[in-house]
Amino acid sequence: MTPEPITDAEITRLRADTPGCSTVAHLNNAGASLMPAPVWDAVRTHLESELTYGGYEAAADAAPAIEDTYAALAELIGAGADEIAIAENATRAWDMAFYGVDMRSGDRILTSHAEYISQHLALLQVAHRTGATVEVIPDDEHGQVSIEALSAAMDERVRVVSLVHVPTFGGLVNPAAEVGRIVRQHPRALYFLDACQSAGQLPLDVGEIGCDVLSAPGRKFLRGPRGTGFLYVRRERLSDITPPFLDGRGVDWTAANDYRVHDTARRFETWDTFVAGRIGLGVAARYALEIGVERIAARVTGLAEELRALLTEIDGVTVRDTGQVRCAIVTCTVDGVAPQAVAAAARTQRINVNTIPASDARLSFDPRGIAEVVRSSVHYFTSREELERFAGVVRDLAR
Ligand SMILES: Cc1ncc(COP(=O)(O)O)c(C=O)c1O
Question: Within 10 A of 210 (CB to CB), how many other CB atoms are there?
């Protein structure tokens, strides 16, 4: 069913609720989005409470709000609150599960060309330590992971399949649910889904996707505070993944020489944490749920297509996004102009975009001969006038 579009009146209200919209044209939502006022209020209010009453006391008073963050994140991805752990960013969330997998010599780790730098480094490190292998599944003709190649590669030695839903370097949306259907046929294989760039911009349902692990940060399309992230681990898989570090938060010290790891995903958490950020993360998830993630997806996908069309019309500009399905991230190169020069020129006009070098995207950019791209990323509060302004900066440089 097609979702009700976000109306112009709503956009006006959502922009008014976003203080940053009055200062910048923020096309760096894939880096860190602009917090909406309720998120900022929640963070600030809790910090003030710490200032006034003390950190532990403020946390005790805020217990219902902290608890609601688990419920809101669970609702966002169709999980149970017991399957959610909160972390300081997405990489550490993912690491806590990945480094907890019992990997053996001869095991196989399958990944794709969309893999994120930090995760690929972790795959290599664990493979070097254990004698497992890392294999990169080829892309299909659209530039998304090949379902046929993945299906052919699966066997009982596959321990982990690591997929990035939306890469850091382009508008591609990988077919996460199709991957899930294949991995599910191999009970020993764990399916790790990196939802860093999809959480908050695309609907996510872990039941439909079939992933065992999902990780995401708060600061990107979810519009939460920096320094927050979360991890989902499927209930049935929790006993299969032992936290690589133990912390009093997720473990009971039952006797001088004994301990018991908790049954829930909180086994992956640390005791001390950015409590104000946790609360803000929950408020951000509720904010997205209230708008409706299906509606957000429709709006950002449409705006990104409009931006691609504007950029494609400019001589010397090449849009670099691949994939059959595309999302809010738009990447391009401009003949004879360094991507960083484009970002710097945009910044002087109060337009925020980012650049992604090949050193962050080896598996995708090296084979395609790309050294660096300009990455712009819209959100639902982006206006058409902001897209025109950014295209104008690119047009002037391309001349
Ligand atoms: C696809 C993808 N995965 C993982 C990460 C890492 O997230 P974090 O910086 O929260 O650890 C990013 C960050 O840009 C990303 O884009």
Answer: 19
Q: Distance (Å, rounded) from C-alpha 256 to C-alpha 204?
A: 43
Task: Report whether residue 36 contacts ligand 1, using a CB cutoff of 6 Å.
Answer: no
Q: What is the DSSP letter of 207?
A: H
Q: What is the DSSP letter of 82?
A: G
Helices 275-291 and 63-77 cross at an angle (nearest 10°) of 40
Ligand 1 centre from 315 Cα, in Å? 32
Give the Cβ contact number of residue 290 at 10 Å. Answer: 8
Question: How many Å lie between the centroid of ligand 1 and the Cα of residue 319?
Answer: 22
**What's the pLDDT tens digit per position in 172-212?**
999 999 999 999 999 999 999 999 999 999 999 999 999 99
Q: How far apart are the first and last CA of the chain?
A: 44
Report the predicted TM-score, pTM, of the whole model to 2 decimal places. 0.98
- Rounded-to-integer distance, Cα 17 and Cα 283, Å: 14
Q: Token pair for residue 198?
A: 């999809």
CB contact at 8 A, 387 and 310: yes
